[in-house]
Amino acid sequence: MSIDRFILRKLNSCQEEHTRANLVRLFVIRIHKAEVAEGNETGYSVSRVN
């Protein structure tokens, strides 16, 4: 299973707010890295969710 599918499955089942926020941040970072690798730099920013 890819790490992306793993993160999405954990997000679907996670009940703890702090853990969900960290999983979302991790997923956004992975998307950003993939876009940079493809040369499609965008304006995403990862910030802390309270």
Q: Choose one word for the global shape.
A: flat
Please provide the count of β strands: 0
Low-confidence stretches: none
Q: Helical amount among residues, as a percent range?
A: 55-70%
**Main β sheet profile:** none
Compute the number of helices.
2
Portion of residues in beta strands equals under 5%
Structural class computed from helices and strand pairing: mainly alpha
SSE string, helix = H, strand = E? HH
Mean pLDDT equals 84
Radius of gyration: 12 Å
Question: Distance N terminus to C terminus?
Answer: 30 Å
Explain what the structure shows.
The mean pLDDT is 84. This protein is mostly helical and 50 residues long. The protein contains two helices and no strands. The relative contact order is 0.16. 66% of the residues lie in helices and 0% in strands.
Topology:
Layout: H1 3-13, H2 17-38
Helix pairs in contact: 1-2
Brief summary of the model shown:
With 50 residues, the protein is an all-alpha fold.
Q: What descriptors fit this protein?
A:
50 residues, mainly alpha, 2 helices, flat
